[in-house]
Amino acid sequence: MKLQLDKALSLVALGVLGVLNSAHAAPVYEIVNLDDYDLPLSDSFQGARNGYALGVNANDELVGIIKGKKKLSTSDVEGGVIDVEDGIAKEETITYSITSAIIANNFAFIAAQNGAYGAWKPTFDSINGTTPPSDTSIVNSVDTFYYGINDAGVKVGSMTAPEKKTENTATADVADDYWYYRDYEFRGVAKSGNIEIPLEPPFTKYVKDDKTVELGGWSAATAINNNNLVAGYASIDISKYGSDRVNYCLGTDNTLPLDICVQREQYPNSTGTRNIQYQTRGYVWQIENDVATGTELPLGLTPKADNTLTFTAQALGLNDNGVVVGRSHVYRNNDTDKLRQDAAYWSKDFEGNYQYHWIPMGDSISSSIAYDINDSGILVGSYRSYIQGYLRDKFFVFDTNTPEVAYVTPNDFGSTATDLSSKPKDINNKGQVVGYIETTYDKEKPRPKAGFLYEKSTGEFSNLNNLLTCESKGYEKGADGNWSRHKVEFTDGTGKLLTYNSDILVVEATSINEDGTIVGTAFIRKPSFQLDSKGNIIVGENGMPLFELSGNGNPVTAYVPRMVVLKPASSGEACTVVDENTDNSNYERQGAATLAWLFALPLVWFRRRIR
């Protein structure tokens, strides 16, 4: 009864909040990259499954990540590559092993309004020698990522080192058996035109007595401003336990080659942690004449000389004035019993040195993080706290010009705060904030999410899906003037004509430029395909795939993440059509926080090994 009552109250609350929202004249948006969104065999992502847009500049150029490579090449099906419904088939696992070849699963891409291959067409961009995921003649071992782009078109992100291999001497009578390793797990990179600029961490080698071990360290670039200042984080030392593991590799008990033993210790284990971890700090790199000069940002505390804990900090955003935001370990109010990871910002003092600034958090807040800051010094972030007995993330705004004034938690959909989790990802100089927010009030189930737009000047908070034109939500107008879902028709591998209703849901907004162009991720409804025991798509005699069918013979569909570009509409109005079926259960498997691993330490770059 309690759950039913919660749902009933949720419906009432949503109705009230909808009325409150309607008091403001919100902008109308249209999705401008829907050229082939509803094609079951769309080749939008060039041989990969999922795509996420992460940053856009003032010139309508964006960067993002393609995730998940297909097993069916473009030559197998006429018209393009097949989109598997959730990125990783059940028969596939992500494994990390020194005896397995490294297969990349992440690829950086670019797109632009005036792109060379068409407006907003996702275009593979090579880093560190990678080749397009659609090229099945080469197996990539380098994972690449783009997180930001400035107005000059300089892109920043990270990359892994290419695979190396050496003969596996532990296995007898197998001539082609190898150990696999690489020089570093991930490293920051900037790309200006065709020039790649590595953003190296200060700590890459472990030295003990007369022995030096090349570990590689780690670094990542998360944002770049228009003065070519790059924010990110980097290793400055190794953790205590990490040094113990390297010493084991150097010792007589180790029977593996040194490089292979070190690689095994650097891989994440079944719990997602690594034996070799690093003391990690927020970092900035200034790029001049295609050369990067790095500067460490101070930690939020000063560890004692004998302290063996691993302390971390990350820089995640910055403005054109060089103020950097992110998070850092800190002893709240200098109380060593209150070690937390909290939102922070770094700004230069009169001598030109970066100083750490804590954003004060109360005892009820377990952690916090800052994502971005605009040129006026308005910072956006989120904190984690218990609300009505559940841990939730809440979006906050903080003015660095008045640090003595506490942060503000905007009311998301009405005049009072709710328990909906929300996270901002970007703020422009007009005070417009984008991110994602939960959309239902269920207590015991995963909640679907939607991209949001917040106008600081008015306090207006909008679900982006409620600002879209009907066409941008998958509707079309009939001859009678009424709107209905666009029906996608296709012929499957048995020759049967099947149909399903199109659907588009913006689940996360990650970046907004000064003109109001928003990029992020939408779930596009796509059909699911039958797979064999090895995870390969089953193709019929006509060369087309076999679709999964429900008990009544209709195609089974699911949401697939796709890059999305939203622009303020020059005409038209926000869609008011209400679907009869509002079940959003398919959201649960995908989630909107797809990119949460960007802010996790240690970072685990997903690679897929096909068994």
TrEMBL record:
InterPro entries: DUF3466. Residues 1-25 form the signal peptide. Keywords: Signal. Pfam families: DUF3466. The keyword Signal applies. It comes from the Bacteria. This is DUF3466 family protein.
